[in-house]
Amino acid sequence: MHSVFIVGGSGKVARSLAQQLAKQGHRPRSLYRHAEQAEELEALGASPVAGNLLELDTASLAKLMAGSDTVVFAAGAGGKGGAQMTNAIDGHGLELSVAAARLAGIRRFILVSAFPEASRGKSVSETFENYMAVKKRADVHLAATDLDWVILRPGTLLDSPGTGKVHAGLAIPYGDVPRDDVAAALLQIIEQPGVSRVIIELTQGTTPVTEAIQSFTRNCSQA
């Protein structure tokens, strides 16, 4: 059984992950900000952990993480609050979470990032350009640590039901992917410790999720 601390626990991918973790006998611990979110998280099988990423310091967050063996960072400003909020959540929030995990003695750290080609070739706002830049800096920050990290870069997120099948690779064509399948991929990464220190791009596809993630165990062992 894994005890998984989910930063950004009230998000859609995070909620799906918590539910899938609980069904597999793991212990999801979901960080949330608003009191009304606790009941929903409990219904999914998660243990709600109250805390605001904008207000916590390293020691306080490490205390909340204590007892977990894995951290999943799935927090994101979602474009709300402009560049300032993106910098605070997707940027500083990731750095804070990494520091807290290290202080708490947690080695396994999984980051939900962004597909590099998101909205390329389209007219996008300065806010979105900043979002992509912050996401890349977060990837760089985590990859430079000595943690047992994995970075997952899903394509455009869909609310449609998961299919249980994906396309995963080190570098793949851009595409869409249901949130449930992103969560299923995260679950497999958590359950397969041999998948380590690798960046995985993910879209919908034809390969069962378990098989798709297992292939990175072989890739990592050959590296």
* H/I helix tally: 7
- Percent of residues in helical segments? 40-55%
Total beta-strand segments: 11
Number of domains: 1
Q: Structural class given helices, strands, pairing? A: alpha/beta
Show unreliable segments.
none
Going across the biggest sheet, name each strand in turn. 3-2-1-4-5-6-10-8-11
CATH topology: Rossmann fold
Order of helices and strands: EHEHEHEHEHEEEEHEEH
The biggest beta sheet is recorded as: 9 strands, mixed
What overall form do the CA principal axes indicate?
globular
Q: Gyration radius, to the nearest Å? A: 16 Å
The name of the CATH architecture is 3-Layer(aba) Sandwich
Give the full name of the CATH homologous superfamily: NAD(P)-binding Rossmann-like Domain
Determine the mean pLDDT: 92
